[in-house]
What does this fold into?
Amino acid sequence: MKEESKPVNEEGTASAKLEALLEQSAALHRHLCPRQVLGVRMGLLGGASLQIEVPQQQRKRLFVYMETDGCAADGVSVATGCWVGRRTMRLMDFGKVAATFVDRTSQTALRIRPRNGVRQMAEKHSEDQASRWHSMLSAYQTMSVSELFVVERVSLLDDLEGWISRPSSRVICQNCGEEIINQRQMEVEKELLCRACAGEAYYVINPGKDR
It folds into this structure.
């Protein structure tokens, strides 16, 4: 990653940790983009605000509700160690570059989002760049967290511990016979059904198309 300006933390000093995390995120996409930078910095800020060391390794104390998929989500994952595959991140498809960071020990939840007008601020911050995209890429690495983000204390309406459930739980759908994990079965007229058989399917099976 070759940039004219090095990433800095909120104290304004060069941050080797931030630079290393940006390189890891860029490796997932073969390049670095502005939303990856926002995601990485949101993740670092979420951990710092909750006083949880990130990226977390074995422990699953930090949980993230991510409000969009794509580059920003990967940036948050690289910074925090929270991934969909590790069941420490849940995608809430709101189409927003925002995330809520939850300390499962204290039950504290903080939602972090970019400030309104942050793109325009980035252009003014890095006016010497070749394009608006390059201005955002550069400025998002060097702007202070107070310039970039809004941090709000929130209360969860979602049952986080219920969603995490017991990974070892397994039952068989009494209609299709497929296995259901993570306590996602539904009881309908005294039958245990998967969500598809209970009427929440996102697909239909085409007759004669099985392989």
User: Anything to note?
Assistant: The radius of gyration is 20 Å. The domain at 165-200 is CATH 3.30.60 (Wheat Germ Agglutinin (Isolectin 2); domain 1). The beta strands are 62-66, 89-91, 99-103, 108-114, 149-154, 170-172, 179-181, 186-188, 191-193.
